[in-house]
Amino acid sequence: MNQDFPFGQFLKSENQPLHNNPLNLDNHLNKTFEKELSAPIVNDEPEEFNEVELNAINQEVLKNLRDSITSQKFNTYFESNFNLISIKGNTVVFSVATNFIKTIVESQFLPVLSEALKSVLGNKEFKVEINISGSSSSPGVKEFIPPTIKTGTPRSATEAKFSLDLNPTKEDLISKAESKYIDHMEDQTFQGSQFDPNKRFANFVVGPSNQMAVATATAVAKEPGRSGKYPSLYIHSNSGLGKTHILHAVANEILDRTPNMRICLITARDFMKEMIDAIKDKNIESFQAKYSEKVDVLMIDDIHELSNKKGTQDEFFHIFNELYNRGKQLIFTSDKSPTEIEGIEERIKTRLQWGLVIDIQKPDLETRIAILKKKAYDLDLFLSDDILTLIATSIKSNIRELEGSLVRLSAFADVMKVEIDTEMVKDLLGLENFQESKKITLDDIAKATSGYFKIPLADLKSKARNKEIARARHIAMYLQRKVIHATQQDIGRFFGGRDHTSVIHGVNKITDQLKTDVNLSRDLIQIESLI
Asked: Where are the domains of the chain?
């Protein structure tokens, strides 16, 4: 279309009455044209997007949300609960299943939702409205009926009025309690130099499974960098065993002792995103200078996330070298040891092993109970010892899940105004079919010990006294006393009719060695998990 076409000649302006237009329209046509211009606009335009298009856009928005938030939150608040209704101008309307979900989305997810819309619809600011759908599965919530569009100026969103039953239903209360559990269970992410002041060594429960990691981290916090014993520290364990808590505890301790110390605590994923943004903005020199020159303590969580990211690995390699050579403190965590990470260059694996490499094992029963008691105290939640033992016996491998079970119980008791009993615990924590643990016998413990050390059970029960067999036998005796409280006489009879004084000697020997032998603690934890 010709851009020089004189559109202005057809339009009325403040300085040019229509009857003076150069087209010399007759008076009747002029009045008709003026009347049409001043008439109310009837909003009978078709929807900007049809149903198929809205559905496609909705799926793309959900895909973006899935990549931006934790899977637990996505499944709870968006999966099958969140639908795009309309897009008009810069207003985007979604519907959700319940008023509770509407409140959560509006209070927690509007920024990430806006970013998802920009990604799908273009870099433009959108106004988001959340409505309640008339789902029959949400009793107590009235269906939202959009205002009827009439002739005249369209009504704004603020003028649209509708009523909701704000009395929470039982389902809403249960959802509210569950959301607290989800918040607790989500991955603990953080940005550089933002530390959780509540995560400290003082409130970290120490047991045989983590005592070496805690002792080393404490030493680093007291003397970070070259002046200390461990200028590079690498801690690895399965998810949920306390690595992130230890990182924050180190950061808080260092800042308490040396407030001017410059600390950067960041996830490997955020480190990579920051580098990518720097490259896009053509500002990679500032990125390099920040980490190489302006950091005294660099802590990177989940370093295995750099797997197969060659460009990021190159930058990390040079930053590691610079900080290490300058005597700065380096701390890394992962779910694997350096040698087990695939997709990491050998030169980086080597450097990750320059310092001390420590693992954290699953907590034993006593430590799990201690963790539960501390968490119950923090939540002001009273639970009997039987309930605590039930939970500790059922949840063995993940501290976050262990604590999360109490968060769920506390939230449920709070919103539903009920007292927690054993049956409720079994139901809420998915233990409905939980049976009392099978009675552990002397034989069960001895078999677990012999299997762990690959020593025949017959040799443990024999009169053999070589060093390996005697040590395994003493460990089995120790565990028999600890786990099932067997008597010295019963243990002695089990091991070939030995005198009870032999059992006392064996148990005491292991007890004394535990005070200094970290490897022995790990052996005991591993054997217990096999019983």
From this structure: 19-144, 201-359, 442-530
